Amino acid sequence: MAFCKFCGKEIADGAVCDCQASQAPVNNNPAVTEETSAQTATAQKDPLKTLVAAVIALLVFIFIFVFIFNSIGARGVARKYAKKVFSKHGGKAVYSLRLSDDVYKDLKGDELDDMIDDFNDGMEDFLEDTKVKVKSVKKTGKLSNKELKGAEYLFAKNNSKYDKDLEADDFKAKKGYEFKLTYKIKDKDSGDKETSRDKICVVKFKGEGWKVLVTDADTLKSYGEKADKNKDKDSDSAINIEDLFG
Fold first, then answer.
1. Which of 80, 150, 154, 175 is the most interior residue, by most CB within 10 Å?
2. How far apart are CA 243 and CA 241, in angstroms?
3. 136 φ, ψ to 5°?
C-alpha cells in the first residue's frame, strides 16, 4: 500500500488519490507544490478550526452591527438620554438633547453652567442612596403627522422659557418615534428594588437633528389637535404658544 503525498490518505500502489490536490495540474515548482499540499492537508485535518473561525467572525460582525444600530439615529439618542438622565455628570448631554441648538448656544456661559451644575448636583444627591440601571429602551411606535405637529409646539414651549420670541413655526418636525424606558431602581440602604417605566419621544427637527421630548405620543397628539383648532379659529395669524398650553 502507498500513501498520497498530498493529503496522506492510504491508496493502492500505482493509484491516484481522489483528493483535490492530486487532481490539480502538476506544478513544476517543488516549493509551491509542497506548500499547497501542506495547506490542503491542514484544511482537511482541521475542519473544526475553520468552522470556529467562521463562527467567531460572524459573532464579531453581529456585535459591531448591533453596536452601530443602537448608537445612531433616534434609537441611539433615546439610549443616550436614558443613560445620561440618571448620571452624576449627565446635565450637559440632557440639556443639549432637550433644547434647540441655537438656544443652547445662546445660553453658554454662567446661566448654562448653573443649569448643568444644578442638574448634576441634584442627581448626585439622588444617586447617593439609589442605584439606577437602564434595563431596556424600546421603540413603541412612529409619530403621526398630528403628533409631529404637537411636537413642534411642545418643543417651542420648552425653548421659549429662554427665548420669548420663539414660535412653533420656527421648528419643523420631520419624523419621530415614541420610546419606553425601563429602569431597575435599588435603594442602597434597604436593598429594596423596583421597576420604573417612562416614555419619551425622540423627534428629528429640520436643522436641529434628533431631540428629546419628555412626554408620550398621546400627549403630543392632544397638542396637535388643539393647535389645529386654534388655527381654524384664526387662519391669518400665528398660534400663540401661551394660548395653546395655558
1. 150
2. 5
3. -160, 155
